[in-house]
Design goal:
The complex is a heterodimer. Chain A is an all-alpha fold. Helix content of chain A is about 70%, strand content about 0%. Classes of the chains: A mainly alpha, B alpha+beta.
Amino acid sequence: MTEQQLIQGCNKQDRLAQNRVYYTYGTKVMGICKRYMKDHERAEEMVMNTFLTVFQKIEQYNNQGSFEGWILRIAVNCCLMELRKKTNFKNEISTDDIAIAVTDNDSNLLDNDIEKMLNCLPEGARIVFNLYAIEGYKHAEIAEKMGISEGTSKSQLSYAKEKLKKTFFSSQILKQ
Amino acid sequence: MKDNELFKYFKDRTDMFDEQPGDQLWAKIEGQLSNTPHANTATKAALKKGFVLKSLLIGGVLSAGIAYTIISLNKTEDIKVTETNTPAPVVKQTDNIQNTKEDYIVPEPVIEPKFIEEPKPKQASAPKTEEKKTDPVIVKQEKQTNVAQQPKAEKTKSKKEQPTNQPILTTAPVKTATEKTETAPVEETKPVQIQEKPQEETIFNESELSKRPEFTGGIQAFYNLINRNFIIHEKIPPGKYKVMIAFVINEDGTLSDVKTTEDPGYGISTEVLKIFNSIDEKWTPGEINGKAVKTNYSLPFSISIK
């Protein structure tokens, strides 16, 4: 089935097409949800929410942008909706925190395991870093989506950057 | 290391998170899809909510507050109704202010049905100040007779008096009031305000008003006033607490019948009540067709302890 056929199938609420969409894009959706949510269970829940939204709002997809991009944006929004309810951005930053490095500072951790690296960030900083560095949102958008101020978004990002750099990249020179 | 290098490092590796979600999850999704064919609208609404700004959240909180106000107003009304139905025996419970307040309501309505016409006009015609003046006199008389007696005896006495003294109507309510002032002598002004309460039909809810009551300088000024005076005495664990205060704004802009309808504990409501009672600044009373009336009002206070 081509993407067009999949979309048409979804528009008719065809279970088979929906199933295909789930298996085609599920991997990336899961990746996003895992990046935002702390545990696997929550991530799966968000994957479910994402696809339910996708199938129920399929008529709103305008065929203009990429179908995958549309789905992934929904995934991000699903996670944010959930996180916004619970994340407390205020109590998380203290300068002391920055000084405390994660125990293992050597290269093992750097086995490209960004999952572990991101997990050492407090939730608020992780979300903002995800949104800004990976998804490419601007501070204004992040502020709007998360219901925080732009200033909070900026300070969370700089905290995340500092912590990641200090913890994982201080003794390493990246060969990029 | 530059920021964009850091970002690129992560961006290039996001696929590490990728993971094929399992069949079980699909089964769940399929179940939801077939179970709730009309879930469409619900999730749409939910999604929209997600995209809307914080301002909406605030709006939600406000409207919840308003809704709560309405509910609590209804509640207070309900309470009043039930109280009027219950006969007098409740009266002598404590010397706690709130209870004595409620106590006042009890005896009056019982009397009212018996002497339908007379007590009301008398009370209406007697302004606060006059009552204030008359009170002490009666207190003295009462003291002479009752000082040595047990409160219970007073009660039964006044009860007995009510039927026998039918012609001298006003004495019955006034006496019960003065009895109270003896038990709770601290609140000199309280009883006066409370005496007005029996005329419940003249207390309006906000929705009935043509002009809502206002605090001079706006409601924010009122909140600030409370805020400035708020002192925490007990150790309160960090968190958010909500206190709901209900009160009556009188025609002259004074407040009366202040009470908490939602109390988070830790002495918070006591403190807020204390501040309320110490406030001298007046409100602009609510109006109906240009005439100042008593208004039921309640305000939520949220206190966050860090």
